[in-house]
Design goal:
- Helices cover 38% and strands 26% of the residues.
- With 133 residues, the protein is an alpha+beta fold.
- The chain has one domain: Sufe protein. Chain: A (Alpha-Beta Complex).
- It is globular and about 40 Å long.
Length: 133
């Protein structure tokens, strides 16, 4: 069963979309094979000033992307680094049965964007190639 908060986040999804001036980009999952999430971040002076997401997934995955962006914006990036999938699930009012992977997917996209995981690319501009590392 979906919590009221999860439903509200799914319906609003105000952070859904791309971020043209992103400084970080990360992905989790495999496009076309189950849930997939891409996350764009703009971090200035170690503060998350903007976050956007796109996902191929269920309402719970959409709500997780929205929740992560909502939780991250305005926070020190290092503080968000410390969040776990359980923290994200708690923010949602619990992950529905069978959807426990959705908060983990969002947090994996964060880690890949922020910490340079294998599916991550740091970007210098939306049109330019990824910068090393």
């Amino acid at each position: 069963m979906y919590s009221e908060r999860l439903i509200a986040l799914f319906r609003s999804a105000k952070h859904a979309g791309t971020l043209e001036d992103a400084t970080h980009r990360g992905e989790a999952g495999t496009p076309g094979r189950g849930p997939y999430m891409r996350l764009w971040l703009r971090i200035e002076q170690e503060v998350v000033v903007a976050a956007r997401f796109k996902t191929q997934g269920c309402p719970a995955a959409i709500a997780c992307g929205e929740a992560l962006c909502e939780m991250a914006e305005g926070q020190a990036a290092e503080q968000v680094d410390g969040l776990t999938a359980a923290d994200l699930a708690a923010y949602l009012g619990g992950a529905p049965e069978g959807k426990e992977h959705c908060p983990a997917l969002a947090m994996e996209a964060w880690r890949n964007a922020r910490l340079g995981g294998t599916a991550a690319a740091r970007v210098t501009s939306p049109a330019g190639p990824p910068a090393p590392g």
